[in-house]
Fold this sequence. Notes:
GO terms for molecular function: heme binding; iron ion binding; oxidoreductase activity, acting on paired donors, with incorporation or reduction of molecular oxygen, reduced flavin or flavoprotein as one donor, and incorporation of one atom of oxygen. By secondary structure, the protein is of the alpha+beta class. The chain has a single domain, classed as CATH 1.10.630.10.
Amino acid sequence: RPKNFPPGPPLVPVLGNLLEMTVGSPLEDFERLRKTYGNVYSLFFGSRPAVIVNGIKAVREALVTNAKDFAGRPQGLLVADLSENEGVILADYGPRWKDHRRFALTNLRNFGMGKSAMEEKIHQEIKFIIDTMDENIGKTMSPESMIYLATSNIVCRVLFNARYNQNDDFINVIIKGYSENAKILNGLSSTVSQSMFLRSQFGHIVLQNLYGAHKKTRVPGQPRDFIDSYLDEMEKDTEKDSTFSEDQMCTFVLDLHFAGTDTTSNTMLTLFLYLTSKPQMQERCQEEIDRVLEGKDQASFEDRHQMHYMQAMIHEVQRVANIVPLNVFHATVVDTELMGYSIPKGTLVIPNMKSVLSEEGQWKYPHEFNPENFLNEQGEFVKPEAFMPFSTGIRMCLGEGLARMELFLIPVMLLRKFKLIWPEDAGEPDYTQIFGGTMSPQPYRIKVQPRSTQ
Length: 454
Ligand code: HEM
């Protein structure tokens, strides 16, 4: 270890600390090592050093106080190499990332994020979910593909001004590939061919179908969606060192679609798992929803301020679901310091989000599922500082506004109409998660009944 580098377990030649890690589920290893070496420690994956950052104090010092120093993405990991530093999620800190992040934020807002225009897009998709659930009344169903389709379509409406059906190629090829891709996004395991296949398929679909069609029908300066806007930007920015290009656009659009679909749907699926298997909590949400929405056709995002328990339930699910458990890996862009240790430029940095989302001292009930974690003594919704499933600092999730709208409107509208029942023959609910770059719940089925009050 370099001088004043964070401590860690002894190194084995060639392997470094790889023998310390359990393949497929390193989260418990990270927690065990934290107890021995403290909140900032180091591990060597082969010869590559990594610093694991735990607990709110250290995570904030890295990602907020020293935000720029820690805003890079590791280079030389398999998946980052494949995307050749394109897109936004894995792009290293620099002009290309900055331009595209700014473009994404501006256009998400222009196409409705945080506004009623986005609520409308979400409500249109909710109608399709309700139709699917109506068709399944009295039966048991797996909610997985229904939820994936809805979250994918909400992002597609913004990116391409389009939605897809269950049988479209787009959904079959892309969405099914995501569960594999999520596991390799951080380069933890290496189904590289899968990722390459996915990227080339997606590139093909975007370039051949969407891009071509957009080019023919667009009116410059009057963008209908992200792709039109990107084309405007490419025309505007004709300087040699422009960071906007056709190739770049493909990865960028894939990034936004992937980031917006996989995370949101796995969170939503976890929410439905808890709502279905904890009927008393479900009923308490429904009482609140009925009271606040009385006389209204549909919920609006503003209604959340009157729905303290529902909000607490959603946030508690996000806390325990810990959907992006090791964040997206960061890297230092200069020689810097963290909690008194020296961290050289280019070091891989892994913020361990679980260590914050269940940190003792930050939560009333750090180790159990309990919406009271987000309620004060008056029963009002409060958000503790340690709630950071979207990360924090200058690289934090740029789709939080959209995700929060979906995570509120979809369950509220469904709980208003349907009772979700844990099937009698389903056995005990299994809350253990499947580990990956994005965590997912174990597959489960629900039984759907119309609400008697409706
Ligand atoms: C529940 C849903 C979501 C969760 C939990 C989530 C979480 C995260 C996390 C932890 C990061 C890494 C931040 C960092 O590196 O410090 C991230 C990055 C990102 N997210 Fe999300 N996200 C969600 C939904 C979305 C949605 C809906 C979109 C867009 C449509 C989106 C787009 C992105 C993008 C583009 C990045 C990369 C930002 C950058 O590198 O500068 N996410 N997200």
